[in-house]
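FAQ: What does the model actually see?

It sees only this:
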Amino acid sequence: MDYTALDIWVIILGLGAGTFLLRYSFLGLIGSRDLPEWVLRHLRYTAVAVMPGMIAPMILFPAATDGAPDPARISAAVVTVAVGLLTRNVVLAVVSGAGVLMGLHFLPG
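And it is asked to produce this:
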C-alpha cells in the first residue's frame, strides 16, 4: 500500500492530536485539583503492577531465542532480584543483573 505525503501528514497530525487529548484529559482537566487519598494510595502501586508484566515475558520467552527459556536471562533476573532485596539499592541491582547477563552471554560455548 502506497501512502502519499498528504496521507502521512494526516496520520502524524491525527496521532499527535490523539496523544495531546489523552494527556490533556489527565493533566489539563484534573492537574490542578487534589486527588483523593485512596486514588493516590492506588497510584503508588502502578509501577509495581506494570513492571513485572513488562519484564517477565522478556525473561521467560525472549525473542532472541524464539521463545525458548534462556538460562542467562533467568540467572540475571535471579541475581537482580536477590541483590535488590539484600541491598535495597536499585542501581546496584540493575548493574549486577546486567553484568551477569553480559558475562553469561559472552562466555564461550
